[in-house]
Write a structure and sequence with these properties.
- The protein is globular, with a radius of gyration of 19 Å.
- The protein folds into two domains: 138 residues, 3-Layer(aba) Sandwich (Glutaredoxin), CATH 3.40.30; 139 residues, no CATH class.
- It is 51% helix and 13% strand.
- The longest helix has 23 residues.
Length: 289
C-alpha cells in the first residue's frame, strides 16, 4: 500500500497552494536562470538550479501532451514564465514560507510560483511534476467551473510518472479487498475540512459482486484511499479513452457544465453519468494485471 505520509503531504500542498511566496532576507541575493517557460531563482547551487530548469522543460512538454491541452500562443512564455524559488536549505525554506517542518515544497496557482530548497528529497522526480501539473491544469480549467478535488489531485499525481506502477498496484489491492469508496461518496466528501485525525467515517462501497456495502475508515485510511482513487480515475480516463477526450471533458467543466454533463459530452458512447463512470472504471481496475 502507498506510504500514508506521501499522501498526506500531497493534501497539505493542496491546502497551502494560495499562500503568497515571500522572498524574505534572500530578496537581494537571488540569482536567476531562464528557459523558454521557467525562471529559477537560487542563491548558491547553480547546478541544482540548472537541473530543475532542464527537468521543468521536459515535464512541461510531457504533461501538456498527456493531458491533451492545446498549446496556445506564448503559453508560459516571456513575462508569463513560471517562477521556481530554490532556497539554500530546509531551514531557510521553512522560515521564509511558514510551512510545516516536514514540508519540502509548495506552489501558488494564482501567481504561478513553485518553492522548494536545494536537493529537497524527491523534488525533481515527484514534487516538481506534481505541482507543475496543478498549475497547467488550473491554467486550462480556471477556478469557476465545477471541478472536483479528485480530478485536480488525480491530474497532479498522474504527472508523477515514476509512481504510476505502485499506485496502480495499490488500487488493485483496494479493489480485491472491496475497500474502494463509491464515487458518490467521493463527490460528497469535503476533504479539505477534515481536521480531526481520530475521527471514524462510515462510507459506502460496491463490492466485486456489485453489492452495496459499508466501509468504516479512520482519517488516515480515508485520505489514502481517496488520493489513490483520484489518480486511478484520471489514469483510467486518459489510458482508456485518450488525451483528446480527457481535454474535452475538462474543457466542458471549465465552460460551466456539471460533471455529469461534461462526462456525457466528452464520452457520449461510453459514459453518460457517474454510475457509468464508476462501472467502467471498476472494469478497468479488474482487467489490470
Amino acid at each position: 500500500m502507498w506510504d500514508k505520509k506521501t499522501v498526506f503531504r500531497s493534501l497539505i500542498f493542496a491546502v497551502f497552494y494560495v499562500a503568497a511566496v515571500p522572498c524574505g532576507s534572500f530578496a537581494e541575493n537571488w540569482q536567476e536562470s531562464k528557459s523558454d517557460h521557467f525562471v529559477v531563482y537560487f542563491t548558491k547551487d547553480k547546478k541544482f538550479a540548472q537541473d530543475v530548469l532542464d527537468k521543468a522543460e521536459v515535464y512541461y512538454e510531457r504533461i501538456a501532451r498527456e493531458l491533451g491541452y492545446p498549446r496556445y500562443s506564448e503559453f508560459w512564455m516571456w513575462e508569463r514564465r513560471v517562477k521556481i524559488y530554490i532556497y539554500p536549505d530546509h531551514a531557510s525554506f521553512i522560515k521564509a514560507t511558514n510551512q510545516p517542518n516536514w514540508s519540502h515544497g509548495m506552489a501558488d496557482y494564482r501567481t504561478k510560483q513553485i518553492v522548494s530548497f536545494t536537493w529537497s528529497t524527491g523534488f525533481l522526480e515527484s514534487l516538481l511534476p506534481h505541482e507543475m501539473a496543478h498549475l497547467i491544469f488550473r491554467d486550462f480549467v480556471g477556478f469557476k467551473g465545477e471541478v472536483p478535488l479528485w480530478l485536480d489531485e488525480g491530474v497532479a499525481q498522474w504527472a508523477e510518472e515514476a509512481k504510476r506502477g505502485d499506485m496502480k498496484r495499490s488500487v488493485k489491492q483496494l479493489y480485491e479487498e472491496d475497500t474502494l469508496l463509491s464515487l458518490r461518496d467521493m463527490m460528497k466528501l469535503r476533504l479539505m475540512d477534515i481536521r480531526d485525525q481520530s475521527r471514524t467515517y462510515i462510507l459506502s462501497t460496491i463490492t466485486k459482486k456489485g453489492e452495496r456495502a459499508s466501509l468504516i475508515l479512520g482519517t488516515d485510511n480515508l485520505i489514502t484511499i481517496y488520493y489513490l482513487q483520484s489518480v486511478s480515475l484520471v489514469g483510467f480516463l486518459i489510458e482508456r479513452y485518450g488525451s483528446d477526450s480527457f481535454a474535452e471533458f475538462c474543457r466542458q467543466l471549465r465552460d460551466g457544465k456539471s460533471l455529469q454533463d461534461a462526462l456525457s459530452f466528452a464520452y457520449p458512447t461510453r459514459i453518460q453519468n457517474l454510475n457509468e463512470l464508476e462501472k467502467r472504471w471498476r472494469e478497468y481496475i479488474a482487467e489490470d494485471r
